[in-house]
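Dear H.,

Thanks for agreeing to be a second pair of eyes. The structure we're designing against is below in token form, covering all 261 positions.
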């Protein structure tokens, strides 16, 4: 009798309302940008749960499919870093068309309806996860020169080594959505050379202009930018406002860093 009972039809992927955002730790904006990390939320997005591994890469090229799950943005294939039934993490292609476009998830169980998302030419966001929210203030993730200690008030987050930055030190910030670099390095290819942003970037601590010794895509990754910032001579403050502008577009995040002489 079992031979005559039809198996239930697989349910095709469904993207939730408001289910596409730029990477949540970098601002979680409702729009996205070419070459930027995005998160897709919904149901039946994948039958498996896993992140990409080295075996999924073809040389330095990231995969456009994991376990049969793929994403297109305006018809262009994205790069798939993580799949699960409820979430996909993907890197939007550098040639994603601008404006309102359809984002579609495909899997072995079917194809989702197109989710209409706005693709902006630039949508910069600095790494600032909710775990770095201290006393109601959102701190950016910034590493001190030792590469292990974070720029925060001492003991701000249990188990996280931290201290304020000192004027004259170079700290490192991380971002997504900062646009093209020179030489051109398309999204989805592991970065193998130093580069610099094609658009002008200004970073301020308080009202003080900083000096950038590096502002480009981070080596050995794809889609993540690195900014080496010389801390200017600002007054001691556990919460110095951190602001930036890219091509005269002011960043929308409200962020802080700790500075002490």
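And this is the sequence the design step returned. I haven't edited it by hand at all.
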């Amino acid at each position: 009798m079992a031979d005559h009972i039809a198996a239930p039809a697989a349910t095709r992927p469904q993207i939730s309302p408001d289910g596409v955002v730029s990477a949540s730790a970098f601002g979680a904006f409702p729009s996205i940008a070419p070459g930027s990390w995005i998160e897709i939320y919904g149901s039946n997005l994948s039958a498996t749960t896993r992140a990409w591994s080295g075996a999924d890469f073809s040389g330095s090229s990231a995969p456009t499919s994991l376990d049969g799950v793929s994403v297109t943005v305006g018809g262009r294939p994205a790069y798939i870093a993580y799949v699960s039934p409820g979430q996909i993490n993907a890197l939007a292609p550098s040639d994603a068309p601008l404006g309102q476009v359809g984002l579609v998830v495909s899997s072995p169980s079917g194809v989702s309806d197109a989710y209409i998302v706005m693709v902006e030419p630039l949508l910069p966001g600095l790494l600032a996860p909710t775990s770095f929210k201290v006393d109601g203030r959102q701190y950016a993730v910034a590493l001190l020169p030792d590469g292990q200690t974070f720029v925060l008030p001492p003991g701000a987050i249990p188990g996280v080594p931290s201290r304020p930055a000192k004027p004259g030190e170079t700290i490192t910030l991380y971002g997504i959505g900062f646009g093209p670099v020179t030489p051109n390095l398309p999204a989805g290819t592991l970065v193998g050379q130093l580069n610099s942003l094609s658009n002008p970037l200004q970073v301020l601590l308080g009202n003080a202009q900083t000096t950038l010794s590096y502002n480009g895509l981070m080596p050995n990754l794809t889609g993540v930018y690195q900014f080496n910032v010389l801390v200017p001579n600002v007054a001691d403050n556990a919460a110095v406002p951190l602001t930036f502008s890219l091509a005269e577009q002011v960043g929308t995040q409200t962020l802080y860093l700790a500075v002490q002489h």
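Two observations from my side: The chain has two domains: 2-119, 125-259. Residues 118 and 251 are 17 Å apart (CA to CA).

Warmly,
E.
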